[in-house]
Amino acid sequence: MDSTFKVMVNENMSFDITNEDIVNIDSLSISENMYHILQDNKPFVAEIISSDFNQKSYIIKVNNNRYDVDISDGLDLLIKQMGFSLGTSKNVESIYAPMPGLILEINVREGQAVNENDPLLILEAMKMENVITSPRDGIVKSVSVEKGDAVEKKQLLIEFE
Q1: Residue 59 contacts by C-beta under 8 Å, 6 or more apart in sequence?
Q2: Are 50 and 38 in contact (CB under 8 A)?
Q3: CATH ID of 86-160, from 3.20.20.80, 2.40.110.10, 2.40.50.100, 3.40.50.2300
Q4: pLDDT for 9-40, tens place per residue?
């Protein structure tokens, strides 16, 4: 499967990288965080200054130039498109199915208080279990689905007060 990653450098330069691009990188590890890279017969020394693996955010120095690098995969882009990005998550009033699937488990009920990142339900899609978490602290106003329901993409799942 050929995955494509969206790479943002210094918040002003964006490009795509595929798995094939990653496999074909001519690099040699010099130390734990330093690499010698050969690209188009030009040598580069790259050092990973800091990394936040969970946020897919890195600070890299290449030939003494510093770059802030953010990497997004297909799921990250879908989450952002659905409005679950960090800047808008506090205003989310409703949660919709990100894809068609089957509700395997519901962890909340109407009137229940939830905290940000609490698991709300599990949606099975394409033979994978996806835990849908709360984008913010709040009170569950309504749960529009039941365990065992088949849902369509963008179908209302949960509303907050």
Answers
A1: 48, 49, 50, 51, 66, 67, 68, 69
A2: no
A3: 2.40.50.100
A4: 998 898 888 888 888 889 999 998 899 999 88
